Amino acid sequence: MINDQRKWDSIFSSRNEDPESSLPRPPALLDDYMEYFWPGPILDLACGDGAASLAISRNGIEVHGVDVSPVGLDRLSKFANHEGLAVKTLAADLDHPNRLFTENLISEARYAAITALRFKATLSCWQTLIPALKPGGYLVIASFNMAHSRKTGFNPKFCLREGEYLPLSDTLDCMHYRQTERSDGNFDEYLFCKPLP
User: Fold this and answer.
1) Is 94:115 a contact under the CB 8 Å cutoff?
2) Which of 16, 71, 138, 172 is least crowded, fewest Cβ atoms below 10 Å from its Cβ?
3) What is the pLDDT of residue 9?
4) pTM of the entire structure?
């Protein structure tokens, strides 16, 4: 965690603080999934300084953003306050997602949706967090894939292999899995739904 935290603290510290000129740009795919975030709340994993969290919150949806970087979360809070948005921030290392429960940062059956955009969580991270979804809730995942790595040189360690998250369909209903090319990169996109009892 310490190395990840230092890396991202350094990245976010180097960015402009002005909320008028340095707001993070939302992922291009976000509008395609907004309907699945209703009625909230949603848990945004690896939210950074709020690229997705802010855009979702602007739609009147309660957002809880989780990130390893306190500096990124501080930026997110400043941007949210500037716009009058209520975004709750949680500092946590997603290499140890069980701590979100044990430290009472999240609880079971709390979220209408959990999302991670432009972040590759481990399969075990997702499996650990599924209990936080309400029955009928959605898991929305979109992360860079190997095509993105080949085109841009982005480290393949942080890219999804084809179908990498399909084993989650043992627990969740897979509504779609697709590979896309968007203005901000090549993605593997997943939409899962937690079955009703």
Assistant:
1) no
2) 16
3) 66
4) 0.91
